[in-house]
Amino acid sequence: xxxxxxxxxxxxxxxxxxxxxxxxxxxxxxxxxxxxxxxxxxxxxxxxxxxxxxxxxxxxxxxxxxxxxxxxxxxxxxxxxxxxxxxxxxxxxxxxxxxxxxxxxxxxxxxxxxxxxxxxxxxxxxxxxxxxxxxxxxxxxxxxxxxxxxxxxxxxxxxxxxxxxxxxxxxxxxxxxxxxxxxxxxxxxxxxxxxxxxxxxxxxxxxxxxxxxxxxxxxxxxxxxxxxxxxxxxxxxxxxxxxxxxxxxxxxxxxxxxxxxxxxxxxxxxxxxxxxxxxxxxxxxxxxxxxxxxxxxxxxxxxxxxxxxxxxxxxxxxxxxxxxxxxxxxxxxxxxxxxxxxxxxxxxxxxxxxxxxxxxxxxxxxxxxxxxxxxxxxxxxxxxxxxxxxxxxxxxxxxxxxxxxxxxxxxxxxxxxxxxxxxxxxxxxxxxxx
Length: 434
Prior knowledge:
With 434 residues, the chain is an alpha+beta fold. It is 53% helix and 15% strand. It has helices at 2-26, 28-58, 85-89, 138-142, 155-166, 175-181, 224-237, 260-272, 286-293, 298-330, 332-340, 345-378, 398-422, 426-433; strands at residues 64-72, 105-115, 128-134, 170-173, 188-193, 200-208, 219-223, 252-259, 281-285. The two termini are 45 Å apart.
C-alpha cells in the first residue's frame, strides 16, 4: 500500500514545488527586496553575535584547567613590584608544606606602551606599539587560544621563541602591527616609551603571532630579562636613581590550576600571605577578571543583545508582513481557483509560509556565509576594539544563526498574511470578479 502511495506523494511534492517556485519568480523585484532586507538583518545580527559570543566565551567559568589572574587589589591598571613575581608564580606556597596548592604553569605580564615615531608631536594611534613584557616561552603554553593550538599551526611562533634565546632584544610582533609598520621579520625598530618615559628600546623582529587568534594581531612580546636590563641601565645612567616605574613593572600574574578546589586553596594562600600587603593583591579566575575589565561595556552589551537585535527582527518581520500581504491580496483569485480545484485551506497556508521561509532561509544562509568568508579571510577579523580584544572572528556557528534568523523572521512576518490567504472565500472573490 505504501509503495502505491509513494508516486502520488512525489507528484504532490513536485506540484507544490512548482507552485512555490512560480510564486517566487512571479514578482522578482519584491522577492529581491525581501531578500536584501533579510540579508541586512542577518549581517547586523552576525556582527553583533560575533562580539557577544566571544565575550561570553571569555567570561564563562570553567570547572577544570582554570586560569587565575593575580592583580593589584585597589588600583586599575594593576602595577605591582616585580619582586612579587617569584612567590606568586609558586602560589605563595610554603616550600615545606607538601599539601599546599601549586600552579601547574604560570605567566607574568608587564606592559610597555611606546611609539615607533621619534617625534613626540607626530605620535598617534597609527604608530603606537603595545607589547607584553613576559617570559617568551610562556607565549606558547599560557596565552589564551594559542595554548590550545597544535604545533603545526604555530610553528613560526615556536621558532620565534627559540630565536629570542639567541637575540636578547628580540621581539615577536603581531601580523597586523607588522603590516602597519611596513616591517618584516629580521628588521630592526626603535620603540620610544610612553608609559616608561625615557626608556627607548632597540628591538629586532624575530617572529610573529599566527593570524588566529586575532586578539594578538596588533600586539608584541618583549623578553622580561631584556626589559629588566634596560631598567638597570637607566638607573646606572641617572646616578643610581631608579626609573619611576621600576618598582611597578608587574601588571598581572597568570596561574594555571587543575580544578576549582585547587584554585580556592591557591587563592587563600595568596590572599593570606603577608608578603603581598603593600600593595595588596587579589586572585580571581580569568573569566571573572575579564568580566571586570568589561564592566564598562556591560550596559551596552545588554542593550545590543536584548533591545537592538529584537528591534531589528521586529522591523524586518513587519517589512516581510507588508510584502507578503500585498502578494496575498494580488493572488486572491489564484487562491480561490486552488480551492475550487480541491486544495484545502491548510495546504494554501503552508504554501504561502513555505515561500516566505524559503526566501528567508536562503537569504540568511547566503548573508551569513558571505559575512563569514569576507570578515575572516579578507579582513582577518571584525576590527572592533574592546579592552584588549582588537578583533573578533566570525564563528562557524554563524552559518546556522543566519539561516535560522532568516527563516524565523520570515515565518513570523508571513504567518498573518498566510492565514489571510487560507481564509479566502471563493464566493466573495468570484463575486468581485463578475
